[in-house]
């Protein structure tokens, strides 16, 4: 599934009809309800079978099983483009944006990535079963404040994870990670990569990529949502649907001028302890004490002075 899969209203409606008809329903009744031909119904069912859906097809159609794959119709995503496999959702979203083929707010999601992008040129390990998505945005910001978009992505992940009512402590690590923190140890749950393009004083567009470990922890330093919430049916689809809605709401709050309120929520939920920051040739060790209005981190250094950090690699340090 390397080709694009787009939202399809007929598919969504057929699946809804089958979901509320556990004993099955005839193709004739489906075609009458949707005002499409029986052959169109049959064609859609065959297409869904190729995508991993399981049906019993006798005199009636009966839906037996849905794959846990975030197809656009499963996540109410008329603004979602799904690919079974991509090199990178970040690069694909950038390519489509530069060609003018997507509108602001469109998500590019992949089942897995072959060359997922992390911060500082790192590779993001991307096995099937996790969330990989990049959204095309057009924020009215100077280039140096792109960090705000990373922080919004992290806050949206945090807000989504909190809907599962887990007991573990989940923290945002400036500028782009979400960690589970316990007993002087951290496990990475999610990462955000915001890349902006344009002039120094005005962003033309931003691609915000988000990776969340849902069913797999590809590295020893990672943790996945399944480890926190246990076995749940269609966890990837459920998370994706919730997350896109919550990200959109969070970004809308930002566009409405609620940055101060969002920043306050971030600060209440961020790691505000000791960190090491590598910023180009410079290194700092100190305590993260908050976020400036421009999105930079306020770092209190070991000598008592303060440094504003706009970019860099931040590592949590336990005493």
Brief summary of the model shown:
29% of the residues lie in helices and 31% in strands. It is an alpha+beta fold.
Features:
alpha+beta, 8 helices, 7-stranded mixed β-sheet, elongated, 16 strands
Helices and strands in order:
Layout: H1 9-19, H2 27-34, H3 38-50, E1 54-57, E2 61-65, E3 80-86, H4 89-98, E4 107-113, E5 116-117, E6 123-124, E7 131-137, H5 147-162, E8 169-173, E9 177-182, E10 185-199, E11 202-212, H6 225-229, H7 235-255, H8 259-268, E12 274-279, E13 282-291, E14 297-301, E15 306-309, E16 313-316
Parallel strand pairs: 3-4
Antiparallel strand pairs: 1-2, 4-7, 5-6, 7-11, 8-9, 9-10, 10-11, 12-13, 12-16, 13-14, 14-15
Helix pairs in contact: 2-3, 5-7
Could you walk me through the main structural features you see in this protein, from its secondary elements to its overall organization?
The protein has 319 residues and is of the alpha+beta class. Helix content is 29%, strand content 31%. The chain is built from 8 helices and 16 strands. A 7-stranded mixed β-sheet has the order 3-4-7-11-10-9-8, with helices on both faces. Strands 15-14-13-12-16 form a 5-stranded antiparallel β-sheet. A two-stranded antiparallel sheet has the order 1-2. A hairpin with a 4-residue loop joins strand 14 and strand 15 (306-309). Helix 2 packs across helix 3 (38-50) and helix 5 crosses helix 7 (235-255). The longest helix is centred in the C-terminal third of the chain and has 21 residues, at 235-255. The chain is elongated. The mean pLDDT is 91.
